[in-house]
């Protein structure tokens, strides 16, 4: 999470949405950079509202706007699947090496997920307790140029991103019945993505 104090803007680092590349490009101009450990780096909107926003307000800044990125749920799951297929995770409970993407998504849909499929929820990360989007400016990952235009204007600087944290290539085709099941059982994930800015 990056806080731009003078510009009154907070950037939430939604996992697996290119947040590391944005963080590396913008950290030098952020007033506050919460980057480690991951639980702090990936502070969700509801936790910011509960703990940090009141503290910032007590410090005289109660007018922050927030910005974040959301990725299409299938693409987001594909990113997690590829990330956890890295050679260095082989033999670890979080590893997806040797399994298909379809098997990974089936595991993700279980009530009790195995460790490799425990990847959280973009919807929970970006919404309040009533399921409403808790971010002022929410951009689709697929609309990265629009996000960069917004940030460049808001921060008054050019932003150049480097490709970081790349995962191995993999086959990411889901069976139609599994896509339908994912859309039905995790409808909130698709709803958040559909409400985000696409351009």
TrEMBL record:
<protein>
    <recommendedName>
        <fullName>Gamma-glutamyl kinase</fullName>
    </recommendedName>
</protein>
<dbReference type="InterPro" id="IPR027417">
    <property type="entry name" value="P-loop_NTPase"/>
</dbReference>
């Amino acid at each position: 999470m990056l806080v731009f104090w003078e510009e009154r803007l907070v950037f939430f680092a939604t996992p697996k949405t290119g947040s590391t590349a944005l963080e590396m490009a913008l950290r030098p101009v952020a007033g506050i950079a919460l980057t480690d450990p991951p639980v702090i780096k990936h502070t969700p909107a509801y936790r910011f509202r509960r703990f940090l926003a009141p503290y910032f307000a007590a410090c005289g800044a109660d007018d922050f706007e927030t910005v974040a990125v959301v990725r299409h749920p299938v693409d987001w799951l594909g990113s997690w699947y590829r990330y956890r297929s890295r050679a260095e995770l082989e033999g670890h409970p979080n590893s997806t090496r040797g399994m298909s993407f379809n098997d990974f998504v089936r595991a993700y849909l279980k009530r009790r997920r195995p460790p490799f499929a425990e990847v959280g929820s973009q919807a929970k990360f970006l919404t309040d307790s009533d399921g409403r989007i808790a971010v002022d400016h929410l951009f689709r990952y697929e609309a990265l140029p629009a996000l960069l235009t917004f940030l460049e204007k808001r921060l008054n600087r050019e932003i150049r991103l480097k490709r970081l944290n790349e995962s191995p290539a993999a086959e990411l085709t889901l069976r139609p019945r599994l896509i339908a099941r994912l859309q039905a059982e995790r409808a909130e994930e698709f709803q958040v993505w559909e409400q985000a800015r696409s351009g």
